[in-house]
Specification:
The chain has 92 residues and is mainly alpha-helical. It has one domain. Helix content is 77%, strand content 0%. Helix 1 packs across helix 2, helix 2 runs antiparallel to helix 3 and helix 3 packs across helix 4.
């Protein structure tokens, strides 16, 4: 595990602060997406869906990112997630 991830994991106050920041970041993104939908006069379905896919991609990439891989590899995982989530991308 990288040193920064270990520090966050091992320090309760820092871990809580990280969660709080993530919660606020998500709330801000939701508000931003809603305002953009209102500006366009749509019902917000597409904006909400895109936002949720992006957030799921970030969470999934982080959960599966090996701690010994560089940040660029994390970003590659984020970029791969939406295409890998397509129904036709699932192998049986």
């Amino acid at each position: 595990m990288s040193q920064s991830r270990r520090v966050v994991a091992d320090t309760a106050a820092l871990a809580q602060s990280t969660r709080d920041f993530g919660d606020q970041f998500r709330a801000d993104l939701v508000a931003w997406a809603a305002s953009r939908s209102a500006e366009r006069g749509d019902d917000g379905l597409v904006a909400a869906l895109q936002l949720n896919v992006a957030m799921a991609a970030l969470a999934t990439a982080y959960q599966t990112w090996p701690s010994d891989e560089p940040f660029d590899d994390f970003m590659q995982r984020v970029n791969q997630c939406p295409s890998r989530a397509r129904p036709d991308a699932v192998t049986r």
